[in-house]
Amino acid sequence: MKFDTLAVHAGQSPDPATGAIMTPVYLTSTYVQEAPEKHKGFDYSRSAHPTRLALEGNLSALEGGRFGVCFASGVAAISAVIQTLSPGDHVICGRDVYGGTYRLFKRHFERFGIRFSFVESSNADQVEKAFLPETKFVWIETPSNPLLRITDIQAVCRLAGRRGAKVAVDNTFASPALQNPLALGAHAVVHSTTKYLGGHSDVIGGCVVTNDETLHERLRFVQNSLGAVPGPMDCFLVLRGTKTLSLRMKRHCENAAALAERLSKHPDVASVNYPGLPGHPGREVARSQMSGYGGMISFELKGGIERAMKMVSRTEVFSLAESLGGVESLVSHPASMTHGSIPREERLQSGLSDGLIRLSVGIEDAGDLARDLEAAIAASR
Asked: What angle do CA 80, 221, 57 make, to 5 degrees?
């Protein structure tokens, strides 16, 4: 079946008891067993839950994977992947990543003996030089957060494959509607389902999809042992969101492309990061591995951080808030919000300036969004 059909139906079927077409929200913590160790596939909801099982089937189908494992948040999903490693193992990570990912790796997992090297993952030479005998994973975001850099997934997978390492791709910015890393050789795909998959800013969740049965078994062990699982209503909301994912992503892409072009021509804008723009250094790679350029933009105004702080506080249609991927448009200041946990000198080294502004472009009228940004830019002078 094609993607749009899978989005509506994969992992789901009418409720056999009632014929309800929507997956039921099973509000139960435990299940009656016919005899010890004899049950209908469910014994305790931390271990397995029917609404969660439907979501895992849906997301694995959308990513073209065999196995899906859902978690209580995107960070919990990231954590689960790293918790399949052991002290002494090494991970190569893209330098431009979500601040919560950096914080988790540097301030939590390094305390337990897992080492991390941060490199520019869009530069294959940097990735290659970072490999150690102990390297077990390469972790990349593409497009990256917040600089929208593009990493060649197939190239990184070839490098990792020659050294026996696995590749995990955080696909949150693209969503499976635009990019399928497993088909490009990745071993694991990670999502914050809070974002485009849920799509309505009303749920927190995460997932990992893989074709690797051994990795899947280890992720299931982590999921059950640590218990960072989403509740049944959370799973239902993400299932509702994926049904319209393809439709929404088309509008996100259309609006973002129009705004990026308009911003790139604005006399007060110093630079724009959007992979669909002709001058973007990763445009050709993005075109080869994505079916659209996404709904995220970052840019800088002439005037630096003082002007940026004024501008993000003066929009009316764009709301000043963290997160992304909802139907409504959001504006944020990464240095003080989503990436504030990264030390300033390291942010600057990766190219994340104090004045960078990030946009999550929603599905509103593109003209209204453009007028709102232009009015806020003018008010920041």
From this structure: 80
